UniProtKB/TrEMBL annotation, chains A, B:
Any Pfam family the entry gives: Asp_aminotransf
Keyword DNA-binding among UniProt keywords: yes
InterPro entries: AspAT_Ic, PyrdxlP-dep_Trfase, PyrdxlP-dep_Trfase_major, PyrdxlP-dep_Trfase_small
Source organism, top-level taxon: Bacteria
Lineage of producing organism: Bacteria, Bacillati, Actinomycetota, Actinomycetes, Micrococcales
Keyword Membrane among UniProt keywords: no
Protein name stated in the entry: DNA-binding transcriptional regulator, MocR family, contains an aminotransferase domain
One Gene Ontology MF term: L-aspartate:2-oxoglutarate aminotransferase activity
Keywords, in A-Z order: Aminotransferase, DNA-binding, Transferase
Length: 419, 419
């Protein structure tokens, strides 16, 4: 690229810029995909939507008492069209879709699935993990004894040829996937790629797409991709039970006090119900009724999400502008530009993302640890950084992005000069 | 006992009384331990205790966002003295202690315990089940692959000699127990018996008391037994990690929308935290804050429980009076007379409880299926009936108890005449 003397002066500039940033003594944090307080304020009225005089669901259920394993039907009817699943194949649960994921995987390990009653846990069991991906998916699966196999992604989703090759092993039981505004790249699986995933031959008869639709309605732009009807795509491909759909309102209403969802093929939902009935009495129906009243209908959710976008989109734009201004001209890195979700992925030169994270930490910008986006925390190219711009204020996000740019510039010129 | 002709006329009388009752065409249900609506009303103010302007815990936590795996410390401090556990060894969770039970047992099956890291699931695993006991305990454990071994109880708790004999098998990993106002007998484990359970030699180094303190504060009488400090008793006996304590507010505030608790020895709580951190982000802290504000302190819980007793105790008394009036003179059955909890156990003559349940169902009184109080639904003596008097109105409870008495009288004289 440039001559050594040019690089040397670039490094000096980058180093000076970094030192200037670090000298400000800031304390910024763009590590986790948490909603900002202003986003949580949007659902303030939900908190008092059920009171001691008015606690019955539209269908007449006393939400304060036991029972109702499926969750309130009125809540399922609001979210079913948004998730593109039939309401009678949608269950509503507690405050975390991670619980549904844990339960479904544990049931499969202990009892097999709706398709094959041989328990996954009786032999070796592996999951495909498109990378970069969501650290909690990997941690959960590892804790349940799955071996995690990484597969690459492109802009349309996981690379099918690689998935198919690995799925020739009957121990490969499924694949994690955040199909819409993927954590952390923000890419959305295309319908064509989803059809391939639905149809893909696999050695395990109950190969399962762990379809974590965490950002199904989390659009940031007027123009955005459509949610996919993965259950129908799977059914059309002859695998009606292949997808397990997960979602929650954690980033719609209140993180940690929302409601979660599970959907699947008809037999899978029966299987889930039968297994859940042995370990659970029922979800918090009062909180489900709060959600029913707060949203009224599916359109109410969409209106609500546009208010989120008004808060979140400027933060995404601030990061993208800082990256373009600071790194674009010299092409020192690449980054995704999502239409929704909670994350931007920055791809640095190979071998320096850990250095960038370290520099940033020392300069007062906390970043997700390098490697967190990969199974076992191992990013083989050491070049992926997840940016989570939602939680800080817009001013803080702008500052943090400037700091991040300074770190990438410094680490990049260090590498170029060394290499 | 009586001469055949006496018995024959008794049977005629019993039959006529039963037919008279059945002819009323009632529809009564004393099957499940659900709180009555009036009990749920007691916690009405809890529902609006957190609103959009006032959502921070006393310690300053924004309860609307992610995090806080242990649960709110202020809630744990309210319930720790009531459960006789240290607050820093008490975790507060979601809406069901059954979830904590499932999680703890699943972690032990997959990863071993704080005492022994050999996964229980790697070999045969069995649990001791004092009978009669709680059907959901049995169903849960069976679904997790445990073999269930019944052991008898007396008025002070499980029979130690039998427990100890069975625990010579290293596959015996623990024992279910509802120590206070046991489901369904209502008996409370004495301190002497608890000390024996704490000290009992077992082949499994991590033999665990599954101490489900579901009715820890559910007293019905002024005079009542004290809660036991089982963690200290276990520590004094040299087994500081032996007890896992479970509890919830399901029958304190709102069934299905309460908060749950887990406590254990210091290493066990660390073990639980570490494992939970891989499958959960944190409980619904907003609901926990509602509970903190509603109760204020431990005394607030006790005051609240006296209001429950005012509603529940007359229903227990109505059942006890009907049993005494209808069955006492002829000693046709025995029953427990609990000082708290949700259940009365009726012990009929051997071999007729299924007949009583069937007769009652046909006469409009729904009873818990015979056998439900035993593992695998098998009551070998066919003589145990669980009575759950809380949910119906007092009038309905009185009627149901009269109907039950009529059924027991009829089935008893049928048996006496046949035998």
């Amino acid at each position: 690229m440039s001559a050594p003397s040019d690089l040397s002066s670039k490094l000096d500039e980058a180093s000076a810029a970094y030192e200037e940033f670090a000298s400000r003594g800031l304390a910024l944090d763009i590590t986790r995909g948490k909603p900002a307080p202003e986003q949580l304020d949007l659902a303030a009225d939900l908190l008092t939507a059920v009171n001691g005089d008015d606690f019955r669901s539209p269908g007449g259920v006393d939400t304060r008492n036991y029972g109702g394993l499926d969750g309130l039907i009125e809540l399922r009817e609001i979210f079913a069209p948004l998730l593109k699943v039939p309401a009678d194949q949608l269950l509503a649960g507690g405050n975390a879709s991670l619980t549904f994921m844990t339960q479904a995987l544990t049931f499969a390990l202990m009892h097999g699935t709706a398709v094959d009653d041989r328990p996954w846990g009786q032999g070796p069991h592996k999951l495909l993990c498109p990378v970069p991906g969501y650290d909690r998916h990997f941690t959960l699966a590892e804790s349940l004894g799955f071996e995690l196999l990484t597969i690459p992604m492109d802009d349309e989703g996981p690379i099918i040829s690689e998935a198919q090759r690995l799925a020739e092993d009957p121990a490969v039981k499924g694949m994690w996937l955040v199909p819409m505004y993927s954590n952390p790249t923000g890419i959305t699986v295309t319908e064509a790629r989803a059809r391939e995933l639905a149809a893909m031959p696999t050695a395990a008869p109950d190969f399962t797409l762990l379809w974590d639709n965490a950002y199904a309605v989390h659009h940031l732009r007027e123009d955005h991709p459509d949610n996919l009807d993965i259950l129908s795509l799977c059914a059309e491909a002859g695998h009606p039970e292949r997808a397990w759909v997960f979602a929650s309102t954690s980033k719609i209403t209140h993180a940690g006090a929302g409601v979660s969802f599970f959907a699947g093929g008809p037999a899978t939902v029966d299987w889930m119900r039968a297994n859940l009935g042995k370990v659970a009495i029922g979800p918090d129906k009062i909180n489900q009724l709060r959600h029913v009243r707060f949203f009224s209908d599916s359109a109410g959710v969409e209106v609500h999400m546009r208010k989120h976008a008004e808060i979140v989109a400027p933060k995404f734009d601030a990061v993208l502008k800082a990256l373009e201004d600071g790194l674009g001209a010299e092409e020192l890195a690449q980054w995704t530009s999502p239409d929704g979700g909670y994350f931007i992925t920055l791809t640095t030169m190979e071998g320096i993302s850990d250095r960038v994270v370290k520099l940033a930490g020392e300069a007062g910008v906390k970043l997700t640890p390098a490697g967190a986006t990969h199974p076992y925390g191992l990013d083989p190219n050491n070049n992926i950084i997840r940016i989570a711009p939602t939680m800080p204020t817009l001013d803080e996000v702008e500052l943090a992005a400037q700091g991040l740019v300074a770190c990438v510039r410094l680490a990049s010129y260090e590498k170029l000069l060394a290499g």
